[in-house]
Every structure is written in structure tokens, then in C-alpha cells.
């Protein structure tokens, strides 16, 4: 279960990086692309510890952040071309990651004495 969560997280990060580089406008320079990429990646990297150690509150917060990313991907679905294709794939992988987070949180112990 934990490897499923970690794999989904890394896959979403990789897909976000690849999609940003591939769909960047041709007039964009590398520093501009790196700024956009850092704005997208840094909030997700804040949850690295929560994903690797399977912490419930961190995973629940990650699902809320993923909903924001899904909103931007939904807007990109109407762009057309390669950007539309990457947006649809990002939506599918983000949904997959939300399900993985929910399943991981559900498997954690609850109540008094839960660590």
C-alpha cells in the first residue's frame, strides 16, 4: 500500500515537470520555465514527508492541494493540442493520487492510542 502511494506521488511530480517543459510556449526562456515549474512543484514537495511516512493529516491536506491542481488542469483541457492531452493525463493521475491518499489514510489506526 505504501509503495502504491509513493509511486503515485512520484509519478504525479514527474508528469507535472514533463508537462510544464513540453507545453511551455516556444517564446519562453529556460529561466521562465523554471520559475513556473518551481511554483508548481514546491507546494507538492512540502508533502514529501507526509507521503513517505504516511501521516494522515498531511495526506488529507495533500488531497485538498491536488483539487486545486485539478482545477488548473480542467482549465487546460479546453486549450487544445498537446496541452489538452497533458491536462487530461494530469487529471487522471491526480485522481489516482487522491484515491491512493484516501486509501492510505483509511488504513491508519484511529482513536485513542493511535500514533
Automatic annotation (TrEMBL):
Key word Transmembrane helix present: yes
Transmembrane region(s): 33-52, 59-79, 85-105
Pfam families for the chain: DUF2069 (PF09842)
Keywords per UniProt: Membrane, Transmembrane, Transmembrane helix
Official protein name in the record: Putative membrane protein DUF2069
Lineage: Bacteria, Pseudomonadati, Pseudomonadota, Gammaproteobacteria, Moraxellales
Amino acid at each position: 500500500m505504501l509503495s502504491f502511494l509513493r509511486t503515485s506521488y512520484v509519478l504525479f511530480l514527474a508528469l507535472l515537470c514533463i508537462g510544464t517543459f513540453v507545453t511551455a510556449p516556444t517564446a519562453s526562456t529556460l529561466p521562465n520555465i523554471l520559475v513556473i515549474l518551481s511554483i508548481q512543484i514546491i507546494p507538492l514537495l512540502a508533502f514529501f514527508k507526509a507521503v513517505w511516512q504516511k501521516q494522515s493529516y498531511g495526506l488529507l491536506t495533500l488531497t485538498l492541494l491536488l483539487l486545486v491542481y485539478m482545477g488548473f488542469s480542467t482549465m487546460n483541457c479546453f486549450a487544445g493540442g498537446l496541452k489538452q492531452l497533458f491536462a487530461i493525463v494530469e487529471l487522471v493521475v491526480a485522481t489516482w493520487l487522491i484515491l491512493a491518499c484516501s486509501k492510505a489514510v483509511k488504513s491508519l489506526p484511529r482513536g485513542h492510542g493511535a500514533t
